[in-house]
Amino acid sequence: MANQPNNPRRLRIGITMGDPLGIGPEVVSKTLADPHLRRKAQFVIYGLNELMAYEADQLEYEPYWYRVQHDSKRTSKTITENVVVMDFDEYDGFLQSPRGPSKSAGIASKAFVEEAIADALLPEDNPRHLDAIVTGPICKEAWQLAGFSWPGHTELLAYRTKAKRHAMMFVSPRLRVVLATTHIPLMDIRNKLTIGKIFDPIDLGWEACKQLGIKNPKIAVTGLNPHAGEGGHFGDEETRVIQPAIDVAKHGGMDVSGPFAADTVFIRAAAGEYDLVVAMYHDQGLIPVKLLGWDKAVNWTLGLPIIRTSPDHGTAFDIAGKDKASEGSMTAAVNLALQLAESKIQQPAPTTTNPDLTTKTTN
After folding, report:
1. Structure pTM?
2. Looking at domain 167-299, what is its CATH homologous superfamily?
3. Which of the four CATH numbers 3.40.50.620, 3.20.10.10, 3.40.718.10, 3.30.160.20 does domain 1-166+303-345 have?
4. Per-residue pLDDT reduced to its tens digit, 302-316
5. Which of the chain's ends, N or C, has fewer CB atoms near its CB within 10 Å?
C-alpha cells in the first residue's frame, strides 16, 4: 500500500476513461487488472461501468472494482475498495456504436475529466480528493463536434486550475522532451513563439527533472528552422527569441545549451548527453519520443497545482474493441503519477516574467 511521507492514508489516483469509443476502456482495464499495481493506491475510474464490464468479459477476468454512481450521495463518504468506478451511466449505449469521432462520446469524455479535475482540487481531507489524475485518450474532433473549444486536456486543465504557466513534458525510458508550443497549426508557430514561451518550458522542465531525481539537469534546446537557422540563412528566430531565452535560463543558473539542429540533438539526448530536450513544436518533439518509446512514453503536464499524467497515444479507433491495444503507456502513466504523488511533489510557483520575454517573432 503506497503511503505519503508522515501520512498513513492511501494515495487516491483518479483515472479518466477517455473517449468511450476508443481504446481507453481497454487500456485502463488491462492496466488495473494487475493486482500488484492495485495494491499501491486506491484507484478511481471516471467512466462507464458498462464498458469496464465488457472489457472484463473480453479479457476473461472477474471484475475487480466497486461500482458507484458518480453523482450519488455515497461518493461523499469514505469508500475503502481498492478500485472504484465512478459510473456515468447516463451516457451508456456505446457498445453498439460505430468507432470514430462522435458528439455523444465527446460529451461523455469531457464530463469524465471535468469531474476528475474538480475532485483533484478538493481539500485533502475530502473523501473525493485525488492525489493525481491520469487521463485516458480523448478525440479532439469529438470535443469539437460536442461544441467544446478546448484543443485538448492540457489547455482545459490549465484553465480549470488557473495555472499561469504550463508545459507538456514527455517522459520515456530513453528521452525526455518539453514542448514550447502545443496544439497550434504549423504555419502559426513562428508568430506564437516569444522569449517567454521558450523560457517557461526550460524553467518548468528544469524543475521537473529535479523532481525525477536528476540533481543537475543538462538541457538542450532545439532551433525552429533547418540547421537551427544556419546563422540566419534559414530564418532568424534562433537569434531573436530562442538564444535570448537560453541566456535568461543560464543567468538563472541552469545548465542549458543550444539552439541545436533538431535532426541531430535528439540522438545526443537519447545517448545520455542531455537529460531533457526543449522542442519548439508538437511534432518536432513527439516524433522522436514515439519512435524510441511508443508504448512507454508518458505525457506529464507541468506547472499545474495538481499532478496530471496521460499515456502518449490517441484513441486508436481502428483497433478499439478488438483486444489489440497495448496498455504499456497507460501503465507507465499510472506509475509516474504514483511516483509524483508519493513524493508529494508540488510544481514551482510561477516566476516573475521579465518584460523582455514577451517579444514576438514577428517584425
Report:
1. 0.89
2. Isopropylmalate Dehydrogenase (3.40.718.10)
3. 3.40.718.10
4. 999 999 999 999 999
5. C
